[in-house]
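Amino Acid Chain and Its Fold in Token Form
===========================================
Scope: a single protein chain, as residues and as a discrete description of its fold.
Amino acid sequence: labelled as such and written in the usual single-letter residue code.
Position: the record begins directly beneath this header, with no further notes in between.
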Amino acid sequence: MTNERGFTVIEVMVAVMVLAVGILAIASSSALVTRFILQGQLDTEATALAHQQIERFRSVPCDSVSSGGDTLGTFQLTWDTATTGINKAMQLTLIVSSPTLLDGRSNKVFSTTLYCTER
């Protein structure tokens, strides 16, 4: 037998198998990360819509705010109001229903107190 240097066919096959398993793991995890990023973008948009709606309610007199709902694109907003009796304040609960990537809907609940002033 000679003292040749190099890899045997079996060593090369094992190295290729290990490399293939690693590449498949990276590919599957990148798809999962992409889905999480897209869902995060939907959640961020839902939160921004809720913030805009709450600011709209803050800009009008309290007696013009009542329970209701609205649809903005794929988002559904519903809100409920209740008087607290303290300093003419009103409790506002806003629910934003947004689509999920798995053909479902996700509900996010936001609650705040509106302090009413005479305008």
Summary: The CA atoms of residues 10 and 106 lie 51 Å apart. The mean pLDDT is 87. DSSP finds one helix and four strands in the chain.
